[in-house]
Predict the structure.
Amino acid sequence: MSHGGGGGKSGVWGLLGFVLFIGLVIFAFVRFPPPTNFRFGETSSSTANRAGTVPVVIKQSSQAVGSSRNSGATANTGTQASSGSGVSPQEIPKGFTAEQLSPYFHKVRLGSVYTGGGTGGGQITLSAYLTGSDTVMVTGWRIEGMRGGSVYVPQAVKVYDAQGLAPETDIVMKSGDALYLYASGQSAIGKNLRINKCLAYLPTIANFKPSIPNSCPYINRSEISNFSGQCQNYILSLGCRAPDMSDIRVPRNEDACRDFLQTLNYQGCLTRHAQDKDFLQNQIYTWISSISLDPFHDQAKLLDGNGLLVDVYEY
């Protein structure tokens, strides 16, 4: 009987212990709940590897954060300058912002600005520094002073014809081109023009102020080798001058020589050389009425057709 009573007490204490254990487990889950994304059977490392389940916080020192902000500010400024002009912030002229720079900033430069010092005349030179086969239309661009006054880039004849009927068109510059604006009235032909290698044959060549290049293609000796020595000497003595057909110094019976002499003029030169790769030269001559900038000292700004800054020149 006593043995049976002891077994009953052990059963009661076992049941109480089990209830107490269950209570402690429930208390632990209530007091320290697991993460909402926790799954039984996962280790902490496998849980962390699932994207977006465990936020990661990286602490930086105040110095590191400051450096990061400085770098960001520099990068933003550089990006703004590049998007507007393709230049670094250090290249932006004082008093201007990146947004005020032309896409052609420093791709066309003011090579010189001379006003004549108040005595009239003067000259402005633009030079193109483009990439590869890039071109830019500059007609309508203007050179503007700090105290008012401006000079506009005009049009010019690309290929002047012998009759003078070729119209002036917008000036397109390529890399290496130089554009001259002269405040000296009109050209000898009444038009602005791009230089070509036949212009020296123009009868008005000596009347250009300032003068334009006075050179022409060499005579191909194979073209005249069948002529008499007297004819060849006369042809070679002409240089870039068209002969006076009323007073040529060749035998009267040498018709082939006379026929050739009739082609030694501007139109004949165009016929022979207009397709040459170097026919058009890299110089454009234009004439304007005046340079309305300060005659002595000024800051000349070259502005494109949208009023954006291309270059600055101080004198």
